[in-house]
Amino acid sequence: MPTKSTITYEDLRHERRVEFAFEGLYWYDLVSRAYYQQQEVINYMNNQERNASYYDSTTNTYQLSESYVAPGTGVAEATAKSLRLPIADTDQSKNPNLKPDSNGNIQTVAYEFGEKEVTAQSKNPNLKPDSNGNIQTVAYEFGEKEVTAEELFN
Predict the structure, then answer these.
(1) 62 DSSP β-pair partners
(2) Are 52 and 72 in contact (CB under 8 A)?
(3) 106/98 Cα distance (integer angstroms)
(4) pLDDT value at position 39?
(5) Closest residue by Cα to residue 39 from 73, 72, 84, 79
(6) In which element (H, E) is residue 31 found?
(7) Rounded-to-integer distance, Cα 52 and Cα 67, Å
(8) pLDDT in tens, 33-68
(9) DSSP 3-state helix, strand, coil percentages of the chain (rounded to 5)?
(10) Which of 5, 20, 75, 124 meets the CB 3.0–4.6 Å disulfide criterion with 26?
(11) Is 0.70 surpassed by the pTM of this model?
């Protein structure tokens, strides 16, 4: 393998593809990259030559079909929606706010603090923020005797 003086993004992408393909993780790598480079991932997926070749037994090679038209026979076009993993049915049944609408979007709901969150601060004065909004940290005090590892395991 020739020595490289510089490494490009394409070199890194190819290395990740080869490494993750055999581990079954490349799809998840694309999904994670799509969080911050969504259009780049969509373009990458749509510009692959999927279902484009056939095996030529006379030359023992794969050949690109002359009639190939992107994205390929039986291959759906990648969109932003195809990069989102679905929310499990069990989670949707526990929380109806997680069910998507007819467009596939999940409605955002403002969180309202209940009695439990409010009373926790009122019961413990260390949880109340000071005038700058910071909560004071309190040092933990150990008891009279510290336990050694030997005492724990014997």
Answers:
(1) 55
(2) yes
(3) 6
(4) 93
(5) 79
(6) helix 26-34
(7) 9
(8) 888 889 999 998 888 777 766 667 788 877 777 776
(9) 40, 5, 55
(10) 20
(11) no
